[in-house]
Fold these 2 entries.
Entry 1:
Amino acid sequence: MGMASTDALCPTVPSLHALAEHVLGAGLHAATGKIGLRAAPGGFATPESADEALGGRWAVTGTEVRISGPDGSQRSVAITTLRAAGGFFGIEPGMPDRVYTPVTPLDLDAVLPIDPAVAATIGDWLALGQEALTRLGATHPDDGPTAIQLWPEHFDLGSTLGEINFGFSPGDDAISHPYAYVGPWTPKEGSFWNQPFGATRTNGELTTVDQALAFFEEGRALALPG
């Protein structure tokens, strides 16, 4: 997996984040009362459990928005604006404030810049994260792993085992490259913990599922009492 440059990453992530919040997340909430999205090939999508309510699976794939119908049909259009994406799915964009205060602006007609290479990097990163988190949960079922979800407000893919958050982020204001994280509910001390909330490793440091899983396992072991 190649590392996207900071200059390319910065405008792409907010664009994808806005689509997650104001289009897929908002549409999912209107139909089901839930907001948790999923990693999907090339990007992210609504959960399969919502297909009937939404009339198919809604996805952001690379530089496109897409609907996969229950009959196997697929329709897609290029990402341009929130208004256009909402129109494609048949909704008025906008995550309601009563659900949570949206992080990204609801600028319906602003062009959403998407760099294809960066979008592909993010899609690959989320796919790697899905596999690593799945394996982590399967290894520690007694920790009660939660469903692996991409939360539109944080725009990261995560799961909680016991009292430790594990996840993959496409990058944010603090860390401009995609990164994985371990976040114990109780702060820890030591060289492993390189962030106020826990530990992170970027996609330059973790390039395989095995490396990501090893990072998670080390963090879990250091975070557990005893």
Note: Residues 123-223 form one domain.
Entry 2:
Amino acid sequence: MINLYDSIDIVEEKLIIQATKGDRSAVGKLYAQYKVLWFSICQRYNERRVDAEDCLQNSLVNIFTKLDQFDHKRGNFKNWSCGIVVNENLMYLRKKGPEFSTDEMERTGGFEMLDERESPLDPQHLLKMLQKLPKGYRTVFNLYVLEGYTHQEISDILKISVGASKSQLSKARKLLQSILEVAL
């Protein structure tokens, strides 16, 4: 018996094969299926929408030019493509500014006050809070909490020590917690 997820994978696999052969309709369907997820990853890593859009554009080029390298036997398309999006955002952050600082100053200002109708746990508000974190805090928080990387992997990716990764995560959590406590 084929379950629903197997049939989705089969449809997706066919789309990928068609897309690698130049079928624009298949590319469009894959894009339509994942564009929100891919862009949400870009927004988590970038404070400015224009930077997130640039990262998404670069990610799309990488995903669809490397599509023939995807092997469904080694993993699923969602994880593979999201990995490309994360890597593109990390490269963009490296190009855009100085290396990650292990002693970034905590920024307590710059967070927008909530409208009384808005919940502090509203996904859009949480995204805004995350975007306002200093770059090092935000990047380590994303990689550890949202992407599931270990501190050793983050250390290797960002070329910082494991201790710096742990410190950045701890500071990000404390800052986010203090902001949520004020909002609640």
Note: The radius of gyration is 18 Å.
